[in-house]
Amino acid sequence: MVRDHKDSDITQPSLLSRPCLVVGNFCHDVLIRDGVVVGETLGGAASFISAVLEGLSVPYSLVSKVGPDFAYMSGRSPVVIPTSRTTLFHAHFDSEADGNGHGDRVLKRVSACDPIQPSDLPQTSFAFGMAVGVGGEVSPETLEQMLEICSVVFVDIQALIRDFDGVDGTVRLLELRESGFFRLLPRIGFLKASEDEAMFMDLEEVRKWCCVVLTHGKDGCTVYWKDGELEISPFAANQVDPTGAGDSFLGGFAAGLVHGLAVPDAALVGNLFGSLTVGQIGLPMFDSRLLQRVKDEVQRRKMQCVSGNERHDDERMFSKPAGHEQFHASLGAAKLIPTCMVQECQWDLPSSPSRAVEQAILNSIHEENINCVDGAITAMHLTANEGLQEDGDLLIQFTPILGLFSLQKQ
């Protein structure tokens, strides 16, 4: 049975009362700049999307797999596969490169958890589904099952076109037409892609089959559908780490639609959360006051459109509703609320910890030798047991829930 945005009104109350389904594995991400580890964090598109959906009070179910080495706690528990390892990516950044978005990033998959099978999906129906694999865990058969149980399915193109070098795991992209997913495009509601990823598909062909949302980093995004296209304004951002920006965008975009916004307004919500994500290293932490302000603005915007007796058809769904620019300004004002940034580990001690202590921490989370940075290790996750370790008068306190450690002088 075909279910997509062409056959269902995505703002029906009957759909909004049902939760979303997010499908994709959680990962461990190691961030390396110029050969030096600058941080490690919970990764995977599903983790970024979950953070946004939870922040905007969108009910959802998660299907995600990890190994027993998984080092984090989250709002939704992934399935632990005893015989597998958690998917691990090393993201290498080059400070000399002057790219936009991910242009200066080399991504390598070091290990991969088991794929998500169609039988792993719940035997129930959902208003929205999100196929957001990052390590090849979503197969065409799994996506096809999602299309059967979800009224509207969002797909991140990276779940469809990523391939991995057999020697070192370097991520490379395949032509969409050459993937096993191309035949499913007419059943997909929304396909999200970055500018770099868009080079691996024929945009003019794909937009005939489904709505394409093309993200442009600091320049916002463009929505393409069969009969038109629309540019959506960005929000100013101070980029620290581009990892996960597109995932947070997709989470915000879907959340906006779940709350009943038209596509252009929902894309603004996506742009907002993408801009918030790049200002932090790894998985973002959103200030509760900001989230409440955004939810208030979204609800206010929804009521404005309802009171305007907007038509429920493709013209209404894709056209900018009256007041779109004011909604952008209101979200921009909400963004001025100070965000709760991930605390960086400051080594402002009378004497820095020994090199042996730093290396011991790093060796506990990596299989290969990677240089560590003197003076700043950010958002490193815990793989040791929770507790305290002592090295002379230096106390190292692990905080596994936040994935951080701090250093204090006794």
From TrEMBL:
Keywords per UniProt: Kinase, Transferase
Key word Kinase present: yes
Record protein name field: Carbohydrate kinase PfkB domain-containing protein
Short name of one Pfam family: PfkB
Annotated organism of origin: Carya illinoinensis (Pecan)
Family matches, as InterPro entries: Carboh/pur_kinase_PfkB_CS (IPR002173), PfkB_Carbo_kinase (IPR050306), PfkB_dom (IPR011611)
One GO-annotated biological process of the protein: myo-inositol hexakisphosphate biosynthetic process
Carbohydrate kinase PfkB domain boundaries: 211-282
Example of a GO MF term: kinase activity
